[in-house]
Amino acid sequence: MNKLLVLAMASCFVASSLKGQGTYDQLREKMVEEQLESRDIEQESLLEAMRKVPRHLFIPEEYLPWAYTDRALPIADGQTITQPYVVAYMTQVLQVGPEDKVLEIGTGSGYQAAILGELAREVYTIEIVESLGLEARKRLSNMGYENIEVIIGDGYNGLPAQAPFDAIMVTAGAEELPQPLIDQLADGGRMIIPVGPHGGVRQLTLVTRKNGELKSEKLMAVRFVPFIRQ
Ligand code: SAH
């Protein structure tokens, strides 16, 4: 009888602690509600993508408990996976739709590329750190993303062979707007890039081209790892 009681208490404890932590699906739903919908993320297809992509599969094991928290996390090589809200914000600004061809500079873990891959027709993503690029390529392919291509190299020059792009996202902080990327923006295209001095706060900058005319607009102060040149 006593043994049974102890067993029952123990299983109650296990059940409640599991419930407290929640499954990854529940944590992801909570992330979407509390970090995205409660702020200004309202593009339905984007919220769907953020609900679907398993962010915990993109981060190192030791940071798993923080996979769905409101912050950036370290990945390998001193780089970071961007905070979920900033991923969603930058993506929403680009208004990516199912016909779009997208270029990302700074693959990192591949998480942002996966979100873009859920929304766009094709995604090209360039990573300068070879080990990160190879790992992201394998991860995205294992997850079945056939519309995402990971390229290893310096993204400064973009990808002229695939240009023009409907949307370009740079996920490393640049000191100025890279001219080759501007040149590869389609008419009607949108580019989002953090611009500002290294080590300081940068401005998320939206660059658009419409009827041949370029416009640039500062949207929000952010911190990003630096854009590296080879
Ligand atoms: N988008 C990533 C986060 C990227 S962190 C994610 O979802 O996880 C910025 C990344 O940009 C780093 O991996 C860094 O190595 C890469 N990077 C920096 N300079 C670059 C350059 N010139 N070309 C391509 N990638 C670059």
UniProtKB/TrEMBL annotation:
Reaction catalysed by this enzyme: [protein]-L-isoaspartate + S-adenosyl-L-methionine = [protein]-L-isoaspartate alpha-methyl ester + S-adenosyl-L-homocysteine
Subcellular location: Cytoplasm
CDD domains, A to Z: AdoMet_MTases
Swiss-Prot/TrEMBL GO biological process terms: methylation
GO function terms (MF aspect): protein-L-isoaspartate (D-aspartate) O-methyltransferase activity
PANTHER family: PROTEIN-L-ISOASPARTATE O-METHYLTRANSFERASE, PROTEIN-L-ISOASPARTATE(D-ASPARTATE) O-METHYLTRANSFERASE
Family: Belongs to the methyltransferase superfamily. L-isoaspartyl/D-aspartyl protein methyltransferase family.
Name of this protein: Protein-L-isoaspartate O-methyltransferase
Species the sequence originates in: Robiginitalea marina
Gene coding for it: pcm
